[in-house]
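Researcher: Final request for today, and then I'll write up notes for the group meeting. The sequence and the SMILES for manganese (II) ion follow.
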Amino acid sequence: MASMNSSHASSAIFVADSHFHLQPDAAETRRRDRFVELCALAQSAGHLVLLGDIFDFWFDYRHFRLRGYEEVLQALDRVRAAGTNLHFVGGNHDIWAATYMQERYGCEIRPPHSLLSAGGRTVHLCHGDGLFKLDWAYGAFRTMVRARAGIALAKSLHPEILFALSTWLSGRSRCATRDEAQVIESRAAAWLARSAQATGGDMAGWDLMVIGHVHHGFSVRSDGRTLAALPGWLDTLGYGVLVDGHWRQLDFDRDPAPDLSPGA
Ligand SMILES: [Mn+2]
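Model: Predicted protein-manganese (II) ion complex:
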């Protein structure tokens, strides 16, 4: 069916690291309700990019469905029904949701680094885990969840045990401290400078890279390229908007209704 969307095709909304749980507490329920409002905003955007760790725990079982994410999943149904293109980049917590997101929302399965033409630019998408080598515990979990052997191992665990393991590890997901934030920013700047020489082939041609994962919002520039990190919907209601090539990092409490029309 042709889209009935009156949306602005050249606009894209980015969000990451909401770390939603199956059994949310009161504070998370409020954040989830705001996320549902962000989804309503995304109904008038051309693209909604979910940049990883939207879900704190996800596992695809053949015969079982996780229970507890219905409000978020149904909000995403409405985004898709409005004609907005949905994109999903798996994080270290929800990489296993990729197949489900493909089946339910038509998201293509993406490698850890990929390019997206949206919002008037070619954007390098990556959740961000493993980029700056800060976090050995994430690193170990990431290696496990992304490896074939790790998936086989996880599938052999009882769902509730896997859930408990993941919940324990996710206790480490929180806002970066001031010292960590400085280290992250300087490593990001160094990475961006190196990438100017290293990036070629299929990954050439981007001038904006958006990541999540670090739970600290910032952007750095080098040689005409920008690397922007979303602060994470868990810590603040941070999100990104790209309209007609113009990138902005916003806070949903202060900016719940940005202008998505071209030239805005
Ligand atoms: Mn992450």
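Model: The mean pLDDT is 85. Residues 8-251 form a domain with the Purple Acid Phosphatase; chain A, domain 2 fold (CATH 3.60.21.10).
Researcher: Thanks, that's everything.
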